[in-house]
């Protein structure tokens, strides 16, 4: 009989033990802050899902597809031909080359599944991937699933720019290419790029991408280009895909998301784009993970993309997000906190350095054991009534200090929610030291 002190024992005896892939003791940040949000009735600007209705034409395209008999059975593992044809058309224009829908596109269960497929297709256990911090937390979890090793290189605010005192531009966050080179070993297989960037809102310029491309070519790396926010750039900022640069199509897999592009994160549709040799390998991983993605939403996305082009939806959506961004930033201006102005995605990093949490402020045990930015986020949720996400989630332990004085807010929310959050945030003034 199992001893009662065994961590996996129960009154019924020993319980199965989880694998290393899913190990980890802390509650994940999303569950933790969603629970706290409910408890303290806070406005939730934490998780990045849309807090406003999806467009009617998108929902109508989805519901028609559910009723369409041709969508009731398995789609091919590569994806429904109609969607691949539409994506090939759209991205041929974007990437400046003719994309072959038969060989260069795979439909995935959201952008996230595409990321896991790429890691699985190009990395053996112990192989390394370069991540630029702050990095979307799923990269690390996905690497863990395949026993891959993340190697971190931080994006840093340029010398001479003080993010704790002044409003900075997402352009001010830069990558040190020598620091990337220093992390490369014979086991480095993949370099992960995210543009537009979550959480900084940085849209990498062509020149910046050229520098990264040189390194990838020099060291024969596969670039996983996470472009899930490709339709969400502001103020005329052009989104450039590294796959469009000379010599990069052969070594880049682009991961995208209909969830972000059309405002339907729950539909779980995304896609991978790349040269046939790369996509063949990704398809093998994809076929093992999900075999094939649900049929109706693929057709729903196909028709929604067609309508979106015909009715100027993407331009309108950009304008709406820009207005939401500015609405939120005006509220932060009124508080007097510094932040990074994002040019893409739908996140804002607010710098919390000027805020003083009162001495002796009490934290529950699940927060007390975490780092400073968790405590600051808890303070925001409980005291101010607005939830954000602690950016240390996006940093490795070695560089966690870089994220300590930031909090990430999502502005993919309704005007009412943003206004309510903005109003509550004004309460911060009394905690800001002169
Ligand atoms: N990459 C980044 C940078 C993201 O922020 C997200 C979603 N939060 C994804 C990938 C995953 O997208 P999807 O919801 O389509 O799986």
Q: How would you characterize the overall build of this protein?
A:
This protein has 434 residues and is an alpha/beta fold. It contains 14 helices and 16 strands. Mean pLDDT is 95; it is low at 1-6. Bound molecules: 4'-deoxy-4'-aminopyridoxal-5'-phosphate. Residues 48, 110-112, 136, 194, 198, 226, 228, 257, 259, 265, 270 line the site of 4'-deoxy-4'-aminopyridoxal-5'-phosphate.
Radius of gyration (Å): 22 Å
Number of helices: 14
Taking the alpha carbons of the first and last residues, their distance comes to: 63 Å
Ligands bound to this protein structure: 4'-deoxy-4'-aminopyridoxal-5'-phosphate
User: Which fold does the CATH topology of the largest domain refer to?
Assistant: Aspartate Aminotransferase, domain 2
CATH architecture of the largest domain: 3-Layer(aba) Sandwich
Q: Would you spell out the secondary-structure blueprint of this structure?
A:
Elements: E1 9-10, E2 13-14, H1 29-39, E3 43-44, H2 56-67, H3 81-95, E4 105-108, H4 110-122, E5 128-133, H5 137-145, E6 149-157, E7 168-169, E8 173-175, H6 177-183, E9 188-194, H7 206-218, E10 222-226, E11 252-257, H8 258-262, E12 270-273, H9 276-289, H10 295-310, H11 313-335, E13 340-341, E14 347-351, H12 365-368, H13 372-384, E15 386-387, E16 406-410, H14 415-425
Parallel strand pairs: 3-15, 5-6, 5-9, 7-13, 9-10, 10-11
Antiparallel strand pairs: 1-2, 4-12, 6-8, 11-12, 14-16
Helix pairs in contact: 2-10, 3-10, 4-5, 4-9, 11-14
Pfam families: Aminotran_1_2 (PF00155)
Protein name: Arylformamidase
GO molecular function, one term: kynurenine-oxoglutarate transaminase activity
């Amino acid at each position: 009989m199992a001893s009662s002190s065994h961590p996996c024992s129960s009154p019924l005896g020993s319980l199965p033990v989880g694998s290393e892939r899913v190990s980890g003791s802390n509650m994940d940040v999303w569950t933790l802050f969603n629970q706290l949000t409910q408890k303290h009735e806070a406005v939730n600007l934490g998780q990045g899902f849309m807090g406003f209705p999806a467009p009617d034409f998108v929902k109508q395209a989805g519901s028609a597809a559910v009723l369409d008999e041709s969508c009731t059975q398995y789609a091919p593992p590569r994806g429904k031909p109609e969607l691949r044809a539409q994506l090939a058309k759209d991205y041929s224009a974007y990437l400046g080359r003719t994309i072959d829908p038969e060989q260069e596109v795979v439909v995935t269960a959201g952008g996230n599944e595409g990321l896991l497929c790429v890691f699985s297709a190009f990395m053996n256990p112990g192989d390394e991937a370069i991540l630029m911090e702050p990095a979307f937390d799923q990269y690390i979890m996905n690497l863990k699933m395949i026993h891959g090793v993340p190697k971190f290189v931080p994006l840093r605010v340029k010398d001479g720019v003080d993010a704790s005192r002044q409003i900075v531009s997402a352009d001010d966050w830069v990558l040190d290419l020598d620091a990337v080179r220093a992390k490369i070993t014979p086991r480095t297989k993949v370099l992960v790029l995210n543009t537009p960037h979550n959480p900084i809102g940085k849209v990498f310029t062509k020149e910046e991408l050229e520098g990264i491309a040189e390194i990838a070519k020099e060291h024969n790396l596969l670039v996983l280009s996470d472009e899930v926010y490709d339709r969400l750039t502001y103020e005329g900022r052009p989104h450039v895909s590294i796959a469009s640069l000379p010599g990069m199509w052969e070594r880049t897999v682009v991961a995208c998301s209909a969830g972000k592009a059309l405002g339907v994160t729950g539909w779980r549709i995304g896609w991978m784009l790349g040269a046939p040799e790369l996509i063949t390998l990704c398809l093998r991983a994809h076929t093992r993970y999900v075999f094939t993605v649900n049929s109706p939403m693929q057709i729903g996305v196909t028709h929604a993309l067609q309508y979106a082009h015909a009715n100027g939806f993407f331009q309108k959506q950009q304008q709406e997000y820009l207005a939401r961004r500015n609405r939120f930033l005006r509220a932060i201006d009124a508080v007097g906190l510094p932040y990074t102005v994002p040019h893409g995605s739908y996140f804002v990093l607010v710098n919390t350095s000027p805020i003083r949490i009162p001495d002796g402020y009490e934290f529950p045990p699940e927060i007390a054991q975490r780092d400073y930015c968790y405590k600051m986020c808890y303070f925001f949720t409980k005291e101010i009534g607005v939830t954000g996400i602690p950016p240390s989630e996006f940093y490795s332990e070695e560089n966690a200090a870089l994220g300590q004085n930031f909090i990430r807010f999502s502005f993919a929310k309704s005007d009412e929610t943003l206004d309510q959050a903005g109003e509550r945030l004004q309460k911060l003034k009394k905690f800001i030291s002169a």
